[in-house]
Amino acid sequence: MSLVLMEGAIAALKSYFEDTIADKLDVLDAEYDDGIVLADIQKFYEGNFPRSTPATPSVILHGESFDPEEQEDDTLYIKNYINITVVCGDADPEVRFKRLSRYTRAFIELLQEGEATYGYIHWLEGRVEVSNTLAVPPFLQAAVLPISLYPASGESY
Question: Are the C-beta atoms of 71 and 98 separated by less than 8 Å?
């Protein structure tokens, strides 16, 4: 048995998001058609928050914890708890809020659309939290989407 645990779940999620987010943002831009454009995600951070100001817009795939759901002699079934944190900035608070909301929507929709693609079943694990705004340029704000992931195939990790 090869244990990949949360590292494997985050890597699968990152790869899937990198492959699909640009098209999803284009769809949302066309749907809203209000002049507020969603820029491509500049960087995906794995594991934790960067030590310096993050690129914007960016996404942090933060592994919070994992729980063994079932253990046998040669298998371990786990539930991964991961926060998807979307960071964007804009001096206009209304534009910043709309972008943050739309980026969050994009990731929720991608999770729903792609379970068979990235190999995990997801659950939303609570409310989406929105941070305070950084009071100096680039006026960063974040939304935190808490999820859990289970292997879709029933494989052990």
Answer: no
